[in-house]
Each structure stands twice: as C-alpha cells, then as structure tokens.
Amino acid sequence: MFHYCQQASFFNNLANKYIIESVILFFSVYRNTSTIILQDSDSDLPHRELKWGILVERRDEMALALEGIKVIDVSQVMAAPIAARHLADFGAEVIHVENPVTGDAWRTYQAGQGGAVGVPSDINYNWESLNRNKRGLALDLSQERSREIVYKLVEKADIFVTNLRFWEKEKFGLEYDTLHRLNPRLIYGSLTGYGKKGPDRNAPAYDSTAAWSRGGIHHMLSFQGVPNVGFRPGFVDTSAALALFAGVMMALYVREQTGVGQEVELSLFNMGIYHLTFDISGALVTGRDIKDEPPIQQIPQDEETVKRRKQAIAEAQAAFARLSDLNRQASPNPLALSYTTKDDREVLLGGLRSDRYWSRMCQALGRPDLEHDPRFASHELRTENRLALYEIVKDIFLSRTLEEWKQRLSEAGIPYGPRQKLSEVINDPQARANDYFIPFDHPTYGPIEVITNPIHLSETPASIRMPAPEFSQHTEEILLELGYTWEDIAQFKEARMIA
What we know:
This protein is of the alpha/beta class.
C-alpha cells in the first residue's frame, strides 16, 4: 500500500490534490491493491474516511476495463457473438438480440441441427461459453416498432456488433450509414462471410466453408495418402472474434481522440487466408503452390524405395476413402458433409440448419421430389434415414463438375465451400474484389503482392508504409532519437552491445 502521512490541509490547493490523486490511483491499480481517493473537505461523496492524514476510499475489486461501454449485439452462431462476449468479459454492458420465435441458432447447435458435434451434456456449455456476461432481448427485427426499439438502443450505445448479411442489414434498416446518422460516435463491428464487395458478398458462410475450404486451410493440412483431415467447429471463428474485438478496440481508441465512430469489418474468408500467411505469401510472390512442389528435404531415393512409397500412398488413399465413407454414413446430417464431384474435386456443404436449407438443397440437387419424400420430411427423419440420403447425395454430386456445382449451390443460396488450392485462392475473384492481396513496390525485390490486414477500419485503415527492416537497419537512427551521441554509439559497438 502507498502511504502518505501529510495532513489533509496539504491538499487545499486543488491542482496539487489532483496530481497526487492520479499518482496514487495509478499506483494502487498497478499493484492491485485498495484504491486511495483524495477528497475536498466539502465533498459529500460517501464511503470516505481519513487515514494517514488523508481521505481514502477502499475497493475490494479493480474497476472493469470497459465498464460503462454499451454494446448492442445483433448476431448469432459463433464468431461475432464471441467478439461481443470479449467486450462483455471486460465489463461492457452487452445486449444480445435474438429472434423471438427461433432464437439464436447456436442454442441448438451443440447436439441439434448441426449434428452431434459436442460431447453429450444437459449443460449447454457451448451457448454458455459464447454468450456469458450478456443480457438477452427477444425482438422481431422485421417489424417497424421493433426497429424503433433498436434505434433507441443505438442512440445510447457505443458499439454495434453484427454478422447479418448485407441484404438483411438493408431489410432491417441496420446498415452502417443508417446507424451512423443516428449516432455518429457509434463503433459498428461487422463480421461478413466474404467481404463487402464482389459476387459473393451476400453468400451464406460458416468458417468451415469460407475459411477452411475456400481459404485453402483444408488443402494445406492434407497430405499424400490422407487427402482429408478433420474439422472442429469454430476453428477460425474464434480467431475471427479476437480480430473483430481488436478492431473495435482500435476504433474506440480513435474515437477518444476524434469523437467520431467508424465501421470495423472483417470476413471469414479473409481470416482463412490470414491463417495461411506463411504459405500464401509464398504463392503470391512465386505463383506456385508448395503442395505441388517435391518435399524440400527429400533425399534422392532408389527406384525400389520410390515404388514402395507410391504403393504405400495408394494403399493409404484406398483405406482412407473407405474409412471416410463409413464416417460420413454415420453422420446425422448429410447436408453438412463434403462430397466428391465428377472431376474429382471436393465440395463441403454447410447445411448445419438442415430444415432451413432442405427445400433449396433439393432444388440444387435437381431432385425436387426428395423435398416431400416421407423419409426425409424433417431433420429427425433425415437423421433416421441418413444412410439412404447420404448415398443419394453422394451419387448426385458425382454427376457434375465442381464449376457446375458452384453455380447451382450459389443460385440456391446454400452455404458451401470448394476445397481450393493456393493457386486458386490467390486468384479467387472474391478475394480480388475485396483487395485481400495488395501490391507493394519493394525497394529491393520490386513490385510484389502481400496479404492485406484482415481488420478493415473505414476511417483509419491499415497501410503498408515500409518493408520489413534489414538487419540492424535502424539501430543508429533509434539511438540518436533517444539522445545518444555518435560517440556513445561507437562505444556501444566497441562493447558489442549493438550490431
């Protein structure tokens, strides 16, 4: 504890009082000890007493970092709700808005429409993990009076978090421009599937389809003999949530300086690319996919060894294909599996809410008769008859190429992700439309392309101002800025303190 033994009369000078108060407050928070509050003799604030000759207030808990910040969370499922939960964890008052009939889809995902993806439990641990520290508001955004309620909340809010698609924002009057007019100080945190521009800006997306498959992660984590790897829910959602949280906090910092809010946007597709920074950076500057290259450390082998290796790969692929087929047959939701196309490509379906997508899926498959087949009339019946449905869907996907399926699934509004190679990722029209790869004129290498920062701020965007430093490039410059002389620098070099 920080002690001051001077008499209270010392603080009659108000300016001196505030200086000492700030020092003590900082020290006590830093040490996680009780806070000392200095007070004028005529103050009527409660909970004060005179100790060590000064007035003090004791608090058993530290103040929360975001206490007093108000957040409206109009999102569901995983990534955006976690970003709002991070704000809530640090003390922000978060109101989570849900549909009054269906609620947030994540409430039933743990062992519901998405399939039995979590360990069975009577505790909805997934929902609790993603939405703790929030207050809940059930509101039908399609009704005008409901929107009036949201607007009243927005007028007093600091942050608005959403993962509504652009057409939904327009339908409900929740676009950034609309809310910015209501509250110019508002920070608008928007998580999208594929970015603000491009042909797929309104396409439905999950991290499994947009980041994992289309972003190239699935491709990079597979290897010869084992062409498919498992996926866990929220693999990219959680990092996207942290990125959105970071962007919102930067925008809050800017608002403290300028008094004006802004939009913070990032996409799951961009986050998938960001996860593969190491490999995609190489693909951008060379035009090559590391998976197409021979292993760098591979020692030259004799013909017999090469033959045995090829045989082992073929045996592993055959065994893995049988095992994968058995696993897919056992899946409770055939609308959330990957399927092989006519040209031996792979498509991951994201029909986690199978009742919602069943009719559209039947149209995309070219089998409208399946929609009213009594075996598949509900999610429960599709789960019961999953083997028959899986075999039907598997055979249908083998009848068309990847490009044909991309068009059909996109037109039907089905969440899906083609398993893309890096050469496809860096040329993806959606990535190009959103400038996920930006040109940079490097002083040594000349014009190259690099991956953009996935956090996009509308008013204070990230930029590339210089290349990575050469070894010890700025050592002398930094030391001179700190006030050291050239004589000091010479001594540092002689002592081998610096390079």
